[in-house]
Amino acid sequence: MIEDDIYRTSSQFRLWSYTEASLRSLREKTNAIASERVRAALRRAKEAHQSTTSANGTPQTGSDGEGKKMDDKEIDCLTPEEELAFVRFYCEKTLELGETYKPALPTMVRATAIQYLKRFYLTNSPMTYHPKSIMACALFLATKTDNYYMSLRQFAEGIPGKKPTTQEEVIGPEFLLMQGLRFTFDVRHPFRGLEGGIMELQAIAEGQGQPGPHLTHQTPQQLQQKLLAISPGPVRASSISDRIGRAHGTTREILKTAAQMTDAYFLYTPSQIWLSALLLADRPLAEFYLDTKLGGPLTSTDIKPDPSDLQNPLYDLRTKLLRVLTDCSALLQAYQPLSSDPGQMADLQRIAKKHHHCLNPEKKLAPKRTPAGTEASPAPASESETERLAKKRKLEAEKARSSQDIFGPELVTERTKQ
Amino acid sequence: MASRNGVDRRDDDEVCPVCKSSRYLNPNMRFLINPECYHKMCESCVDRIFSSGPSSCPVAGCRKTLRKNRFRAQTFEDIGVEREVDIRRRVMHILNRREDEFDSKRNYDDFLEQREEIIANLVSRIDVAKTEAQLQAYASENMDSIRANQALEEEEASTFQARVTKEQEEARQRRQAERDRLDAERREMQAGREDFLSRLASGSSADAGKIAREGHKVLLKKSSARRSEEDRIRQKQAALRGSETKRTGTTLSSVEKSGDSGLIKGLRKIKTPEPEKPYDPFMGYVPEKRDYYTLKQSYPSGYLDRIRNDPQAQAGGYDLREYYSRTLLEAFAGLGVFVEEEVTRRDVSQAAATEGAAVAVEE
């Protein structure tokens, strides 16, 4: 199938498609590395604090080891599941944020931003970078990649909050985000595909449908007859085109929410996603549409009109596809918006509290627009000012040295050195 | 030659079966046959009967229609042999597959046997019509390969002929050289002797013995020098000939190679190069071909119709068909891509790279 080959060339398939197992293992790995770092960072912060106090007064070398052990126990990092829920919360927030603008940002832009967030947090942990800061940046980046122009000032002013968000805060983590995205900005959404499918269904409903290239024996009239004969959908509709319209609306809603918040984009292809959503919205309609494309209802194989060689590969495809679509629609159906579920909300509050404690103190994003990961460490105490300054100078020198590199300094070594 | 001998031998008592004139009366009489019926008749009868166009055979009981241009002199004394040779030639002409065209020796042998069977059938008049039909069908089907093989055969025959001529020429030259050499030797011997005699005649009797010895020595020296010279020349020629045969050998084999590539490598099929296909810039990809849908010129849609009729939207060159093709492509792009299995397969090879990247980004 030529369309499939076209999709296989996309970066979404090449870099951002995973199996369930690989997705899980990747998240676990990210989480493990991040937790390790957070623990180390917190320990260092504690040590720094203790050293300053000891410098002031009584040195307590003996209690240091005990304190460290206690810290390790105290620091309770997020689990991968908690991280996922936490990121999902911010994905929903992104959706809301997009709606606060006048006019609201297009669905496509918001969906792209959400996918950026999800992709970014596959290899980065929310414990390292707070999703709140990344979220705005992702949305702004999405307006640019989806060709929906908006000035940075306008964008920053539109972000609600107690204190206004500065432009620097929005743009700050942009490079970091792009790096996390592996510089692939193309997100294949199911929305446009849905429009195409609905368009074709409408054409069939009006007797203008074209059969697929592999099933040319059907005439437009036959297709129309079959469409009119399908079993009634979940909602009573006055006419078939009304029914298609309703299915369209429902599917679009599912795609806007469930498809974005779940891992559907990682696990399935856009056309599988929209067809699964259509299956949820109006099962007979979706099955009819698949029949026109891949031939023959699956359940009654014995009355296949012509068991020719041509149909066999399509038949295999159909069987496989039905399984995948069922899986995908189950995934979409399992989605429940956070706001409608108090249990999840309470859980989320717990996670947020926990997250507050285990946020990596060394990775605060400076509101400064630097080409690479920013290094300005927070100033916990003013006592060790001289020591801190010396460290900073050293880092600065290092940065100057590495900034001669055209792509900026190497992030990894810098961060670990700190 | 055989026929000439035969004709010569049976000079007198031969009688033309048509006009009954005998060689006795007409010593220049030649007998001709026609491969249609192989009835023998004299040249004058052929002229007389068939000059005005095709006519039936004058031999009683034979109603074959004969043409003058097919008449020819008899090669073999026995008409049966003559006929068989003719049939054989014709069949071999059509069934001229070569051994290197077959996959195995066994297949070639089968083919040979089949050919012999066909010849035998034709010769002994068994299933003639059927066999002829087979032959004709084969000939029309395999016109090209038959012609190619004929060309090959001709080429081989001509190279063989050329080689034979060359060898003969060389032998002739060698004989000539040898004769020249012997002549020269004899002349020299003669001259030496004459010189010796004249010196003996002019010189005193005292040194006659010495002169005789010298003359003998000179002759010996000359002959030995000549012999060594000859040896050298012979060696040179041998070396030359060796290299020549080597060269001709290589050229021969190369000729054969160009004719049928399989002879040396043991390939059994002559591969005619496939006709060049028309240039395909997309390597088999047809830009407008789609597998899941057929694109129509227009689709019914309320809000798109507005755009179609809106001159403002159209002015910039916007074409709704672009939208149609894009939405429909996206509707089906990747429908048959099963991420689960394809990614698993891909990850096996790319695992290291992907994880490396992930770790790098995370760190």
Automatic annotation (TrEMBL), chain A:
GO biological process entries: regulation of transcription by RNA polymerase II
Keyword terms: Cyclin
Any Pfam family: Cyclin_C_2
Location of region: Disordered: 44-71, 361-418
KW Protein biosynthesis (keyword) present: no
A molecular function (GO) term: cyclin-dependent protein serine/threonine kinase regulator activity
Membrane-crossing segments per the record: none
UniProt entry tagged with the keyword Nucleus: no
UniProt cross-references to SUPFAM superfamilies, sorted A to Z: Cyclin-like
InterPro entries, alphabetized: Cyclin-like_sf, Cyclin/Ssn8, Cyclin_C_2
Biased composition annotated in UniProt, kind: Basic and acidic residues: 385-402
Composition bias, Polar residues: 50-63
Domain Cyclin C-terminal: 189-333
Protein name per the record: Cyclin C-terminal domain-containing protein
From TrEMBL, chain B:
UniProt-listed SUPFAM superfamilies: RING/U-box
Compositionally biased residues, Basic and acidic residues: 164-197
One of the record's GO molecular function terms: zinc ion binding
Record localization: Nucleus
Keyword Zinc-finger: yes
Region (Disordered) residue spans: 153-208, 221-259
GO cellular component term, pick one: transcription factor TFIIK complex
Pfam families linked to this entry: MAT1 (PF06391), zf-C3HC4_5 (PF17121)
Protein origin, superkingdom: Eukaryota
Keywords recorded for this protein, A-Z: Metal-binding, Nucleus, Zinc, Zinc-finger
Gene Ontology biological-process entries: nucleotide-excision repair; regulation of transcription by RNA polymerase II
Domain (RING-type) ranges: 16-59
PANTHER family named among the record's database cross-references: CDK-ACTIVATING KINASE ASSEMBLY FACTOR MAT1 (PTHR12683:SF13)
Protein name as catalogued: RNA polymerase II transcription factor B subunit 3
Organism: Penicillium chermesinum
